[in-house]
Write a structure and sequence with these properties.
mainly alpha; globular
């Protein structure tokens, strides 16, 4: 059996425990997303055999939570500092983007929509249900009648497509 397959089997065997761990650490609604991030980290680990161990997975999940906390804290500090530096900007309301930025954003959305149309219909629908409609992976799996690992696989495919578009931007 390949080491990648062993890693995947170990991840799936411990998935629910890892999900409970992340939820208990305060991930809340983001637990499923963090679990997806955890899989990406595990899959990229230099030693898949070591990454297949529960202790390694739990430590990686713990580090994800620490990274998430730090990132949120920094974002809040940056947001507050920016808002304080903007005279006349109402609390929580951003100024309208300049025309050049608006055009660039519309072009990026058009490129992303075109790329998403190349995905299999289920993968595109799952991405929309998860990222736009805000449904959990578990809800989506029940809705589509597929396993959670299938939902994760479709999301990985969609994220790879989006990443490809973003990396090829001019």
């Amino acid at each position: 059996m390949s080491t990648t397959l062993q890693l995947e089997e170990a991840y799936l065997a411990h998935r629910e425990r890892l999900l409970r761990f992340l939820a208990a650490r305060g991930a809340g609604e983001a637990a499923e997303d963090l679990l997806q991030d955890l899989w990406l980290r595990l899959a990229a680990a230099p030693d898949p055999v070591a990454a297949a161990g529960l202790a390694y997975m739990m430590r990686a999940a713990d580090r994800l939570m620490i990274d998430r906390y730090r990132s949120e804290r920094q974002a809040n500090l940056r947001g507050r500092a920016w808002a304080e530096a903007q005279p006349g900007v109402a609390e929580g309301i951003a100024p309208a983007p300049d025309p050049e930025r608006e055009v660039a954003a519309r072009q990026e959305v058009a490129r992303l929509e075109a790329a998403l149309r190349t995905l299999p219909p289920r993968a595109a629908a799952i991405l929309r249900r998860h990222r736009i409609d805000g449904h959990t992976q578990r809800e989506i799996a029940a809705e589509f009648g597929v396993s959670i690992s299938t939902v994760e696989s479709d999301l990985r495919r969609a994220y790879a497509t989006i990443l490809g578009v973003r990396e090829s931007e001019p």
